[in-house]
Write a structure and sequence with these properties.
This protein is an alpha/beta fold. The protein has eleven helices and eight strands. The protein has one domain: TIM Barrel. It has helices at residues 14-24, 35-41, 43-50, 66-76, 92-105, 122-127, 134-147, 160-166, 194-200, 209-212, 217-229, and strands at 4-9, 30-33, 55-62, 83-87, 110-114, 152-154, 172-175, 204-207. Helix 8 links the parallel strand 6 and strand 7 (172-175). Helix 9 packs parallel to helix 11. The two termini are 14 Å apart. The relative contact order is 0.14.
Amino acid sequence: MACDLILVLDAQSPREVTPTLQRLQGTVRWVKVGLEMFTACGPDCVREIAGLGFNVFLDLKLHDIPNTVAKAVESAARLPIRMLTLHASGGREMMQWAVKARQQHAPDLLLLGVTVLTSTSAAGLAETGVGDPPANQVVRLGRLAVDSGLRGLVCSPLEIAPLRAALPADVALVTPGIRPRDAKADDQTRVMTPAEAAQAGANFLVVGRPIFKAPDPAAAARAILAEIATP
């Protein structure tokens, strides 16, 4: 599978980012709507952004009892979205219920299992009772997610290689923690450049501030796309 770019919308309203999105039309195909925007303005923001012609990745990181997550997947399936996240740490039964809801209500929706957040260090993971390094926990949760029926995962770029070694080749890997070489890491602790992540086997690179904070966001996006397209 080829590698593509997903733009993060770190805003409370589509109106805050619409001018930038209009400049990026024809360059960026995918955008990520997360908790900040969805909590502020709800499903209408998804419809508004999809109406601009973008594929929407709805990043809600669902994690609850199986029935509640399944119902949330059913509700999300009514929206014009192409990807939806849930926490793999919710366990096998929760993910299986989510997969069943997807099959019944949105067969083309890609459910993504979130493994270990890219802001989580080994020390932070240990504080939650997980003594293994992040890479080991990512592979453990990745195997569980795929065995439960998910066909995509969210992971840091540093865990792409071990996941590729452990999982079927058709599992989509979506990687935040992407920073061009001259960009700040911000709150990410496990990062790679776009070229490094693409060469490691990522299918989607999730990037926000390095594009939105650039003097010319469209030029910044084009530079990342050119970088990941170079063999």
